[in-house]
Amino acid sequence: MDIETFSMILDDTYLIDIWLPSFRSKEFEKISCSKWAFGEIKEYVSIGLYPYHCGTLQDYCDIVNDFMLKMLRYSSGETNPKVRQIFNIAYKAAVNVLDLLRSMK
């Protein structure tokens, strides 16, 4: 699978239906962090595949798993609750992407 296909799958599965509520809403921060997290996952996978633009599903699983473990470590070691929440959201996004990739095998 190439990186463009992976990006489209994430967009279609997770991002296309996300709407941002009012800036004053409690959900705004969580949803905007989710959008950020999926963008970071795409970037991390792209860097992980470099210099190639495609890889096997196992390659994608390995890279996303590495991202997931990093986010877990960052959220566990962080003392600031807001920063911990951001990394926790990224961790949960990576878990969802990893589940999706594993179901495609």
Please give a structural write-up.
By secondary structure, the chain is an all-alpha fold. The chain has one domain. The chain has four helices and no strands. Helix 1 (3-15) runs antiparallel to helix 2.
N- to C-terminal distance: 12 Å
As residue ranges, the low-confidence spans are none
Give the overall form.
Answer: globular
Number of domain modules: 1
How do the SSEs run, as a string of H and E? HHHH
Main sheet makeup: none
SS-based structural class? mainly alpha
Helix content: over 70%
Individual helix count: 4
Strand content: under 5%
In angstroms, what is the radius of gyration? 14 Å
Average pLDDT confidence is 92
Q: Work out the number of β strands.
A: 0
What keyword list fits this structure?
single chain; 105 residues; mainly alpha; 76% helix
Summarize the structure.
The chain is mainly alpha-helical. It contains 4 helices and no strands.
Secondary structure elements and pairings:
Layout: H1 3-15, H2 27-49, H3 57-77, H4 81-103
Helix pairs in contact: 1-2, 2-3, 2-4, 3-4
